[in-house]
Fold:
Amino acid sequence: MDPSGSELQELRRLVGELTARVFRIEQALSLPSGVAAEASPRAQIPAPLPPPAEPKRSAPDIPSRPAAISPASHGSPDLESRIGSHWLNRIGITAVLIGVSYFLKFAFDNNWIGPAGRVAIGLVAGIAIVVWSENFRRRGYVIFSYSLKAVGIGVLYLSLYAAFQVYSLVPGGVAFMMMFAVTAATAVMAWTQDAEILAAFALIGGFSTPMLLSTGQNREVALFAYVVVLDLGALALVILKPWRRLLVLSYVGTLGLYTGWYSSFYDLTQIRMTVGFATLFFAIFAVAPLLARPAEKGWLSDVVPPLVAVVNAAGYFLQIYIMFEEIGTKDTAWFALALAALYIFLSRQARGRAGNPEAARTVDLLHLALALGFITVAIPIRLDAHWVTMGWFVEAAVLLWVADRIHSELLNLFVIGALVLGVGRLLLIDNFYIPRPIFNNRMATYAVAIAVLGAVAGYGSRRKDETGRMAAVISMVALNLLALIALSREVADYYSQEMTNLRPQGQWDPSAWRDWQHVKIARDFTYSALWMAYGAMLMAVGFWRRSAFVRWQALVLIAFTIGKVFLYDVSELDRGYRIVSFIVLGALLLAISFVYQRDWLRLSGRNNSGESSKESPAGSPASR
Structure:
């Protein structure tokens, strides 16, 4: 073949490959259609030429290099467009507003414009900004439109404030009606444009109106009637629109106005009217979680109704409690029980509500929790001293029974809460007067606590799951500790009374020192005897019930008693008490050891056969 013809064919092949590469690069860059169209004909030039049979070389894939320059080519026009159409626009509007404000201030300072003109300019400017913002909304600049509306609405409120408070151009009633009209117009815009942010603007303006028009006079009925209207409007919006977050704004505004009025004007002569309005506010926000329309998305919208419900219930009860405490009555306990009954009713209403089952379940449990909380609060309000503790233990028992019947984990949590309150008060707060040993109020209270803990232990053992077993274990340990504490306190009080009798009329007699020492020694010996007896009883129960856990508790208590006998009793007790302590302790230990060695209950056999792995901690000695 002619060399020149071969070189020409090779050159054509290289041109075809380069053209194909350029075409692939243009496709990777996603160039506009015009550029791609120009590249396409060029890509067709080498098409008639068949690919050479040899050598067959594949072109390297090189999309990575154009990808590196892709952001620059595309980012520049987008950034430039955003700067030119958004940021420069906003900066320009801000500059114009600042310039106009400086001009107006200069005109005001030089009295070019009187008070009426200033207010008129503010009103016209506010309305103009709101109307102007609609042009941006129709062109798709929704957020910017809402920002302008916020500015215009704010200008309207401030202009009306100046007309009444600063220049006294209009009476208070006229200013109020004009502000209310601005609020209503904003709410209508929110409804027609389906804009939650505008509804928030309306509520902010509505709750700001009383503060802007305040004259320092007590107008309770007018103020709270207006707040009720605002709250009902907010409630209607959250029923018809998925705007649950408005509840927080409405409640905060209501609470702020109520608290401000209460701290300035409330006295006992107004208690009926104040309680009436407080109850009306409470009712609005109590039913809101039941009636609020479910939100489409967002964790905040899911959290808002429960949060408002809890804060509303707590704030209402606290307010009523404070007002009733001023007149020295304990009727708030019955009031708390009435609220508990109300929330039980609301719980049933939420349970039967159609719609989102998960949300209905949440509201149901929330109302049930509030009901139990008010029952718990009512107990210490109505009862006194140890009766409060017994009331909490009884409540725990009732809740445990109900939880067992309906299989509610939430009620189990309240059982734990009531038990913690009861045990904490019993050990740390209750101060009993003990006229006689054993048969007294303290032992009765401890007996109720032990009985309830025993019920919890039984309930936990029947559940057959890890949570139930843990509850049973903790309850059994707490039960035995309370029993030991109760008996030890009885011993301490008995010997304390004996020591007091040695000091008639509070005067110490040196000759009674020996008798006082004998009483102290007897008390210390009684402690050891009591703990040994209780440990023996626990060991017997452990063998009888075939419970390694109970036997381990017995072993721990006996070990503690051994330490006391060897480390304390040997040096402090008289010879007779010391002898008795060691003999009784030794006999008890020998008896327990003999039972383990004889293996009467076949503990080692059960362990070896694998029937009960729980017996292994206590039944490990298998040899006889």
User: Anything to note?
Assistant: Residues 64-109 form the longest helix (46 residues). DSSP finds 21 helices and no strands in the chain. Residues 143 and 296 are 20 Å apart (CA to CA). The mean pLDDT is 79.
